Amino acid sequence: MTTFASGTDTLTRDALTVLQPGFPGTTAPDWLLRRLGEGLASVGLFGRNIASPEQLASLTAQLRAEREDVLVAIDEEGGDVTRLEVRTGSSFPGNNALGAVDDVALTREVAAELGRRLAACGVNLNWAPSADVNSNPSNPVIGVRSFGADPDLVARHTAAYVTGLQSAGVAACTKHFPGHGDTAVDSHHALPRIDARAAVLAARELTPFRAAIDTGTRALMTAHILVPALDPDHPATLSRRILTELLRGELGYDGLIVTDGMEMQAIAGTYGIERGSVLALAAGADAICVGGGLADDETVRRLRDALVLAVRSGELPESRLADAAERVRALARWTRTAATTETGSHAGDDVGLRAARRALGVTDGSTGAGSFTPLTEAPYVVALTPVANIAVGDETPWGVAAELARLLPGTETGSYAGDDAGTAALAAAGPRRIVAVVRDEHRHPWMAAALDTLLAARPDTVIVEMGLPQATPRGALHIATHGAARVCGRAAAEVIVGR
């Protein structure tokens, strides 16, 4: 491919402006700072870039020293998907917990406090909230990232989240348009397909996005999914019918359209990231998110050159690229001037824990004399651990063992998976009381079988479900946390010990 090295003319600057790349490390590499000087207007942050709030603030200050109006984006949903607290677990429950409480004022407070923390670190664009209606409980990638399965519930909490986040001066990027909830495939690995009729999509998937648009979400993120009722030939990210005709035209959305990560296999494995980026811009996207797995100068150069070449060959109208770049700059202007509600009387640092406590679903399965008796001696925690999806990652700790160990010193834990998980866990537990922690029991037959084994031998086992609570509650005590954030684990541990 021809390389356009000047980086100074309008066309190459616009091509850089529409990119949202990631990068390695906890300080900005020289190539990134150079690209900011040449026109790059956005960067994306992931767990690899964050060691502490103080380090993050220093990093964003370093970026702004090179470009004052840079958009600093992050994938911080709270709950299971956290980058700010990737090594400890989130201080905020995720969407499913907030949907379970169904208090829109609480959702707004949680989002505002999260936004306040992001703003304090210099982050001004959050790739959240997820507005997906989790209509397929076997969905491998959305699950507890969704507020729930009811479109109206998802809509009102999406609106509340957008309002809260943006009140802190952080732009919301509502995702994944036109809705990723009814998929059985993870788009990180392949291209999912939703075969619902157009009328169903309008009443179900699109309802929360209408609410987000009406509320004034500053950005929307596309989904790498094929929806034949809307466009039989192109995934949403690459579909002019979906992005321009439906989203811009029929729904009247005028903000920034950001693609989901172009390195995800749904695009990279079918079109390639260069070709996919050109098609996405032509379809109506404004910003190309790339960098979750591809985070280097070579990727930025290749994408810039692909866009420039597409304009020069007539495949991508120059006016479309210029319009996309201007939308990026418009969002940057908004973040610099956004009035915040920061008056010193915010919801409080403990709003996430308070929300997690309210989200608990507790079923006392004790039989015979009396109800469940709280634990007073250190138990053995059996973590039945599924493979984490890429959005969540495997860096972030989850469960209740750490919180139980704080409340009941001497608590021990082990992680188990596979057909012999129950037998192995019983042997390791010995005579100690068992607390079994699961994530989406309904999706993992081996996990359900392990619980069968544990309960047959030890009917006093306590079960904590930290995924979607679809399976029938069982055990001496069953706690549904509606998510695996650190605060969800703490709230469950408090119940187990009678606090």
Topology:
Layout: H1 10-17, E1 19-21, H2 30-38, E2 42-45, H3 53-66, E3 71-74, H4 95-101, H5 104-120, E4 125-126, H6 151-167, E5 171-177, H7 198-203, H8 206-215, E6 219-222, H9 240-250, E7 256-258, H10 265-268, H11 273-283, E8 288-290, H12 297-312, H13 318-337, H14 351-359, E9 361-364, E10 380-384, H15 401-407, E11 412-416, H16 421-429, E12 434-438, H17 445-457, E13 462-465, E14 477-480, H18 486-496
Parallel strand pairs: 1-8, 2-3, 3-4, 4-5, 5-6, 6-7, 10-11, 10-12, 12-13, 13-14
Antiparallel strand pairs: 9-14
Helix pairs in contact: 1-12, 1-13, 4-14, 5-6, 6-8, 11-12, 14-18, 15-18, 16-17
What does this structure look like?
- The protein has 499 residues and is of the alpha/beta class.
- The protein has 18 helices and 14 strands.
- The strands form 3 sheets. A 6-stranded parallel sheet has the order 2-3-4-5-6-7, sandwiched between helices.
- State the helical fraction: 25-40%
Shape: globular
Question: Which assembly state applies to the chains in this document?
Answer: single chain
User: Radius of gyration from the CA trace?
Assistant: 23 Å
How many angstroms does the end-to-end distance come to? 64 Å
User: Helix/strand/pairing class, anyone?
Assistant: alpha/beta
Stretches with pLDDT under 50, minimum 5 residues: 1-7
Notable traits:
six-stranded parallel sheet; alpha/beta; single chain; 18 helices; 499 residues; disordered N terminus; six-stranded mixed sheet
Q: Quick gist of this model?
A:
By secondary structure, the chain is of the alpha/beta class.
